[in-house]
Amino acid sequence: MKSRALATFLIFSAVAAITGCDRTTKTPEGAAAKPGQAGDIPILPVTKGDRWVYDVRLEIPADVTSPGAAEVDANHERVRTYIGKVTPAEGLPETDCFEVSSLAAPTEREFVEILDDRVLMRGSMIMRPETTRPMWLDHPVPFVIAGMKAGTESPEINAPGGSLSRKTRVVSREDMTVPAGTFPSIRLLMTGMDGELELRRTIWFAPGTGIVREEKSRYRQGKLIYRETHVLTKLQRAAGS
């Protein structure tokens, strides 16, 4: 369970995920947007109660889970809801929080900092009775920044012991069409290792909207273990937002 939480923490989104509050945090007073950034700001305007609804497709090749096992090709719904600013645990600072729910997995909370021009990752926590503290970054790590261009890379993140790692770079800026519409997006590629498993995760983040598409695959010795694809079907803004 701990290893799963750590892996989720390093790749979220998401989780990851990633979308906030009755007000939007401002950039430092007097700071001006650089050329190319203005169209991306605010990077993620949010209001408590906003919901991002995704259709998730899970594909597992035959013989992966056990010899002779049939292939899996199934869909389910996943909902990310902004629940405002919360204190993740005693002694930790208040931060923006999203709650991710699905019939296919336990509810999870994603902790981020949302500024006018960027989203920073702080941590995540699977909501189980025995879980009392989140996986937490003492120093926030940028997830997406206004004005990002192809080739931009983030520092590599390594978990203690070196068995888990993540590295992210911007592939391109492109339009992405999903059931919820067509969105000018920043295409991010996240790669890394979970022990002997290789991760490849592509995220299309639309400034002003959030994650609109996500493709996540895991491989063992070059062989596909599973692929998961998320597409935004609707963005439900809270009343009054």
Please characterize this protein's 3D structure.
This protein is globular. 4% of the residues lie in helices and 54% in strands. The relative contact order is 0.20. It has a single domain, classed as YmcC-like fold, CATH 2.40.360. The chain has 241 residues and is mainly β. The chain has a 12-stranded antiparallel beta sheet, with helices on one face. The longest helix has 10 residues.
Coarse structural class = mainly beta
What would you say the CATH architecture is?
Beta Barrel
Biggest sheet details: 12 strands, antiparallel
How large is the share of residues in beta strands? over 45%
Distance between the termini: 37 Å
List low-pLDDT spans: 1-31
Tally of separate domains = 1
Mean pLDDT: 86
| Rg over alpha carbons | 18 Å
Strand order of the largest sheet: 6-5-4-3-2-1-12-11-10-9-8-7
- The CATH class designation is Mainly Beta
Q: How many β strands by DSSP?
A: 12
Q: What is the H-and-E element order?
A: HEEEEEEEEEEEE
Spatial shape: globular
Q: Specify the number of helices.
A: 1
CATH fold name: YmcC-like fold
Features:
single chain; mainly beta; 4% helix; 241 residues; globular; twelve-stranded antiparallel β-sheet; YmcC-like fold; disordered N terminus
